[in-house]
Design goal:
The complex is a heterodimer.
Chain A: H1 2-19, H2 25-32, H3 38-60, H4 75-91, H5 95-103, H6 107-130, E1 144-145, E2 155-156, H7 162-179
Parallel strand pairs in A: 1-2
Helix pairs in contact in A: 1-5, 2-4, 3-7, 5-6
Chain B: H1 5-22, H2 30-43, E1 48-50, E2 55-57, H3 60-74, H4 79-96, H5 102-106, H6 109-115, H7 119-140, H8 144-153, H9 157-177
Helix pairs in contact in B: 2-3, 8-9
The chains are: A mainly alpha, B mainly alpha.
């Protein structure tokens, strides 16, 4: 049954990722050089909508809190994020968009995947020597959420009601998605003197 | 054709929500490790071995967390691996409905404007980029899907730490390397 759901949700995710333009490296480059924030708006709206639906669902009992899966916070999360951010901005792909991009017909995404498999192998052989280092030190207990979510197996770093924190932050992301200008800097066009849009 | 950001954002958000409602949050980058493990185990059957309690591996990373990854390597028809295979199907269907020129399939216009339109240069660049991205994502324990989207959606501290790290590197990199759009 869960494999059937994997096929349905995975296919929907792949389809929507491609349709929302995330698999096109041009859109990633333009977001990160601040000339077209379209994709940033898409991502913030997606996280906001997902968050509001999930936490509202958990409050009403529609969503099983046990389905949450919070990852551990440790020093390596930050440094790994830095490394990934550099490679993402350089290549225009992240792991999910490379797979879907290749499927949608992008040849360069195939080379990214090949490099990625080598990078994964390099991490697998490095892991034994990274395991005991400061990089694996947990931050604030590791698997924690910002508020304390009723019924969740994770601790909150504050005593605030976790479902409400999630809904509030989701609403904030949705608002920011709407108010964020489409363009933060002018890019090539001589539009610096006129307001964006 | 790309969806309007409002429609695309809501559709993506609904998919992330459905994943949690029905099974568990979405993540992708682990499956690069699982595929490596499957290939490695095909070459050397000793890589992943069955034990009384489950599975383990001679590789410390596959063996971690009581052989969680070793188990996935031994059973590729698990939820997370099939999920990524299904993403390929969804992406292919979307791609079929949208024609692209061969140039655009190889070298994105923004890359070409800054680094030239050499296909070989682009391919070497993304290969190195792929290595860096997946190495970083594995050090972080997740990627844009698992940490940034699923993590921030659940208000995980790890998701925010990852996102801050990612953009702290990504914005300066793009602003320096991709001055021309």
């Amino acid at each position: 049954m869960t494999v059937f759901l994997a096929i349905i949700i995975g296919a929907a995710f792949g389809f929507v990722l491609d349709r929302s333009g995330v698999t096109n490296p041009n859109n990633i480059y333009k977001m990160l050089n601040l000339t077209n924030m379209h994709l940033a708006k898409t991502i913030m709206l997606a996280i906001g909508v997902g968050s509001v639906l999930m936490f509202a669902g958990q409050m009403t009992g529609l969503v099983d809190v046990g389905h949450m899966s919070v990852k551990t916070a440790y020093i390596g999360v930050f440094f790994g994020g830095l490394i990934m951010g550099f490679g993402w901005a350089f290549s225009g792909f992240c792991p999910g968009t490379s797979v879907v991009g290749a499927a949608s017909g992008r040849k360069d995404a195939l080379l990214f995947i090949a490099g990625g498999l080598l990078g994964a192998a390099a991490y697998m052989v490095s892991y034994a020597s990274l395991e005991g280092t400061f990089l694996m030190n947990k931050i604030m207990g590791g698997k924690v959420t910002l508020g304390t979510i009723p019924g969740a197996k994770y601790d909150g770093i504050t005593a605030l009601q976790g479902d409400l924190v999630g809904i509030a932050l989701g609403v904030v992301l949705i608002i920011v998605a709407f108010v964020l200008p489409s363009k933060l800097i002018g890019g090539d066009a001589p539009t610096n003197t006129v307001p964006a849009e | 054709m790309t969806l309007d950001w409002k429609l695309g954002g809501v559709a993506l958000g609904v998919v992330f929500f459905l994943a949690v409602l029905l099974v568990k949050p979405i993540g992708v980058s682990t499956q690069f490790v699982i595929l490596d493990g499957i290939i490695g185990d095909a070459v050397n059957a000793e890589l992943v071995v069955k034990t009384d309690e489950g599975y383990t591996s001679s590789n410390a990373y596959l063996a971690k967390s009581n052989g969680k990854y070793a188990k996935a390597v031994a059973n590729p028809l698990n939820y997370s691996f099939v999920f990524v295979i299904a993403m390929i199907v969804g992406g292919a269907v979307s791609g079929l409905a949208r024609r692209k020129t061969m140039d655009e399939r190889r070298v994105p216009a923004v890359w070409a404007a800054n680094f030239g339109d050499s296909v070989a240069k682009r391919y070497v660049g993304v290969f190195i980029g792929g290595f860096i991205v997946i190495f970083g994502a594995r050090l972080a324990g997740g990627c844009s899907s698992g940490h940034m989207m699923s993590g921030m959606m659940q208000t995980s501290l790890s998701g925010y730490i990852f996102t801050i790290g990612t953009f702290a590197a990504a914005f300066p990199t793009a602003l320096i390397l991709f001055r021309r759009s």
